[in-house]
Amino acid sequence: MSIQIVSKDNVPQTPTIVRDAVPGQLQIAIIGAGLVGLATAALLRKQGHQVTIFESSSFHAEIGAGIFLPPNGVGVLKNLLPELSWENMQGVDFRTLETFNFDGTHMDTDDVSEAWTMYPQGWFMIHRVDLHKEIMRLALDPAALAQAPATIRLGTPIKAVNFDPKRPSVITEAEEECTFDLVLGTDGIKSTVRKCMVGAEFDAPATQFGFYRWMVDLNTNPELSWMRDDRKSTGPTMIMDMNNPAPKVMGIFAYPIRRGNFINISVAHHDTRDPDTTGIRRPRRRHSGEAFEGLCDRFKGLVDAARNPRTWQVRKLPVLPTWIKGNVAILGDAAHAMWPTYGQGFAVGLEDAATIATLLPKGTKPSEIGGRLQIFEKIRKPRGERVSKMSTDDLSPPKNESFWIRPELLGYDPVAVTKAALAEA
Ligand SMILES: Cc1cc2nc3c(=O)[nH]c(=O)nc-3n(C[C@H](O)[C@H](O)[C@H](O)COP(=O)(O)OP(=O)(O)OC[C@H]3O[C@@H](n4cnc5c(N)ncnc54)[C@H](O)[C@@H]3O)c2cc1C
Ligand SMILES: *[C@@H]1O[C@H](CO)[C@@H](O)[C@H](O)[C@H]1NC(C)=O
Ligand SMILES: CC(=O)N[C@H]1CO[C@H](CO)[C@@H](O)[C@@H]1O
Fold first, then answer.
1. How far from 55 is each of 8, 38, 98, 260, CA to CA, in Å?
2. Is the dihedral of CA 311, 129, 140, 36 positive or negative?
3. Are 194 and 202 within 8 A, CB to CB?
4. Res. 269 pLDDT band, cuts 50 70 90
5. Is 34 within 8 Å of 350 (Cβ atoms)?
6. Which of ligand 2's atoms lies nearest the C-alpha of 411?
7. Is 370 in the pocket of ligand 1 (CB under 6 A)?
8. Ligand 2 contacts CB of residue 369 (under 6 A)
9. Whose CA is closest to atom 2 on ligand 2?
10. Span 283-311, pLDDT tens digits
11. What is the CA(67)–ligand 3 centre distance, in A?
12. CA atoms within 13 A on the CB side of 330
């Protein structure tokens, strides 16, 4: 069986969520089936636990978007989930970044081949949907792994969490209460689990910056295929309005996905919407042509090919007082939504997932969970906060490093860190 993008209609719904307790298997709820929730589910399935995922959406509206998967994230997936098919994910290697001026002048080639020597697992650009589908297969497809698959309840938003120190529970929008040994909140930047844990005063505040985003299919825009074909090695292209003292857009960032046949475009711009009346991810007006004044014809094609551009305001969470409460923890964007500056958001969420799974091998007793979550928070909170801070405040690398090749980010091994912490505990 292979799992396609699931909709409420073609995924088996489980009326009774809590299966019979089996000694040595924890009953774990995961709130949110984004990339981090599904990766956590796959890793905990592999440890032999009983995993139930609650997802508010029905996955009808998957947003197409490209994502960078840096070596620290690739390492987690390749080492802990070798069953993942990289073939299915159709990634493109990140080898070089080419920078151009708006007028078409080539400015710079940033070569990251040194990173491939330092981190042979690689660095990829992948379509979000391809990544999501493949990680979902490992979480849900009975044939993907020997261990029993996770169960998913789509169209089931969680509205409250009860932090009972022994048996936490979640309450669905339909007032159903379900009890588990452990509840993990991977419900993203607007996390309900986080709100229940620390209050709404720690929501992500509005910023002045957003990204226009769209995708160009080279099969239907062959005049742009030079962007894929006219370069020595694969990687993103940056186009900046360098001669303009007050540029309307801060840069066009274009990168190939799906074996190079699609180009993902992301344009950083000022976004001065009123934070109280606009949602975090609400698409807004079409990008204005005026913002791209002075762009040479060669690149203008990228803008003209935009069919359904959206804007996405970037936001970052403030430092939270805690990431755990009773037998409940938050992971991924729910805990550390950050700016996409270094393309690290998902990778740091994968580190969280790897840490949780390493802390909870099969045979872990429910009474041990509280102590393990304390180790989780001790390891992960400083790390998530550090990378999040780097995404806004630390944009100049040390002298011996390039902006892209920063061992602090790329060389982090969550399993080694967790094993060391367990040995110490
Ligand atoms: C503009 C932009 C560019 C980015 N680029 C990169 C990049 O290049 N590389 C990278 O590593 N990261 C990148 N990121 C970050 C990356 O997208 C996120 O870190 C990653 O997708 C986080 O996933 P998540 O699973 O934690 O949250 P999400 O993907 O937000 O998933 C949360 C899930 O929870 C569900 N949910 C929400 N509330 C409830 C509820 N109450 N009950 C049940 N379910 C609920 C939602 O429907 C959703 O499915 C970028 C982010 C942005 C904004
Ligand atoms: C740069 O130097 C620091 C400190 O010595 C070291 O930790 C880091 O790994 C070096 N970076 C690279 C890319 O070698
Ligand atoms: C439409 C699309 O694929 N947009 C993505 C392009 O890349 C940026 C930077 O990683 C993402 O933020 C967009 O989501």
1. 10, 10, 39, 31
2. negative
3. yes
4. confident
5. no
6. 9
7. no
8. no
9. 400
10. 444 555 667 888 888 888 888 888 777 77
11. 6
12. 28
**Average of per-residue pLDDT across 332-357:** 96
Mutate to test the pocket of ligand 3, among 62, 67, 314 (most ligand atoms within 8 A of CB): 67
Measured between alpha carbons, how far is 272 from 313 in angstroms, rounded to an integer? Answer: 10
Q: Which two tokens stand for residue 289?
A: 């042509």
pLDDT classification of 20: cutoffs 50, 70, 90: low
Mean pLDDT (the chain) is: 88
Predicted confidence at residue 99, as pLDDT, reads 93
Structure token digits, residue 144: 């993907």
Residue 354, classified by CB atoms within 10 Å of its CB into exposed (0-12), middle (13-18) or buried (19+), is: buried
Helices 345-359/71-80 angle, 10° precision: 30
Ligand 1 in reach of 37 Cβ (< 6 A)? yes
Please tell me the distance from the alpha carbon of residue 137 to that of residue 84, in angstroms, as a whole number: 9
Tell me the sheet residues that pair with 183: 29, 328
Average pLDDT score over residue span 16-32: 80
Helix (H) or strand (E) holding 118: helix 113-118
DSSP class of 96: E
Helices 71-80/414-424 angle, 10° precision: 70
405 lines ligand 2 (CB under 6 A): yes
End-to-end C-alpha distance for the chain, whole angstroms: 42
Q: What is the pTM of this model?
A: 0.89
Establish whether residue 56 lines the binding site of ligand 1, counting it when its CB lies within 6 angstroms of any ligand atom.
yes
d(CA 114, CA 94): 11
pLDDT digits (tens, 9 = 90+) for 77-117: 999 999 999 999 999 999 999 999 999 999 999 999 999 99
CA dihedral 347, 352, 358, 359 (to 10 degrees): 170
What three-state secondary structure class fits 81?
A: coil
**DSSP states of 236-275 as a string?**
-EEEE-TT-SS-SEEEEEEEEEGGGTEEEEEEEEE----T
